[in-house]
Each structure stands twice: as C-alpha cells, then as structure tokens.
Amino acid sequence: QVQLVESGGGLVQAGGSLRLSCAASGRSLSNYGMGWFRQAPGKEREFVGRISTRGGTTSYADSVKGRFTISRDNAKNTVYLHMDVLKPEDTAVYYCAATPFMNTNQPRDYGYWGQGTQVTVSS
C-alpha cells in the first residue's frame, strides 16, 4: 500500500505561483510513475501532468504546458508540482496519484491517490 498526502495548496492571485508537494509512505515511490490531476466543481477529474519513475520523462496537459513543472525526489519519497503564472481557471482540488504503468494519463490506471489539496486563484 502507498499512502499519499498532498500539501501546499492555498489562495493565490492570478499570475502567482504555488508549489504542491505529494509525500508518500508505506512504499518507495521509485517504482511508480506519478501523476497530478485536478478537479474543479462540477467538472470531471482531469489530467495535469505526469513524471516517470526516475524523473527523466514528463508530460503535461496542453492547458498547463509551459506553466507547470513536475519533479520528484525519490530519496525523499516526494513528488512536486510547481505552478507558475496561475490563472483563475486553474482553481481546483489537486490530487497526486501513483501508477505501476508507463506513460498513462488515464485516472483509472492510477491505483493510489491522495486526498487532494485546494488551489484557488483569484482574478
């Protein structure tokens, strides 16, 4: 079992930055691809980005590409989502998730999820 806990969310003005953290316990994250997803009120959960097991490969949704960066520190069993130039449409609950599969953006492929952290971007 992998337990994931997100932190770092909050209220920020448009154009600002936040860094989310996802700390794992129970197992090493080094064997898992990690993804970030978000869900806004009344909308489906959507893919934000993912990172490979060793951090060598990342992929992002078009809506965040160039503004968001995912990184990981396997020694600390932690994954990060750095968000720049935040927009009001980025407001959502952000979740990290772990998958044993390669290169997947599908929530159904992620077996472990955190509880989420709220990000609110004011205009």
Helix content: under 10%
Low-pLDDT residue intervals, each spanning 5 or more residues: none
**H and E order:** EEEEEEEEEEE
- The count of strands amounts to 11
Shape: globular
- What can be said about the biggest beta sheet? 7 strands, mixed
In DSSP terms, counting alpha (H) and pi (I) runs of 4 or more, how many helices?
A: 0
Range of strand content: over 45%
Assign the structural class, choosing from mainly alpha, mainly beta, alpha/beta, alpha+beta, or little secondary structure.
Answer: mainly beta
* Gap from first CA to last CA: 40 Å
Rg (C-alpha, Å): 13 Å
Mean pLDDT metric: 96
Feature tags:
mainly beta; 4-stranded antiparallel sheet; 7-stranded mixed sheet; globular
Entry summary:
The chain is mostly beta strands and 123 residues long. It is 0% helix and 50% strand.
Question: How would you sum up this structure, described in words?
Answer:
By secondary structure, the chain is an all-beta fold. The chain contains no helices and 11 strands. The strands form 2 sheets. Strands 2, 4, 5, 6, 9, 10 and 11 form a 7-stranded mixed beta sheet that branches. It has a 4-stranded antiparallel beta sheet with strand order 1-3-8-7, with no helix packed on it. A hairpin with a 4-residue loop joins strand 7 and strand 8. The chain is globular and about 40 Å long. The protein starts with a strand and ends with a strand. The mean pLDDT is 96.
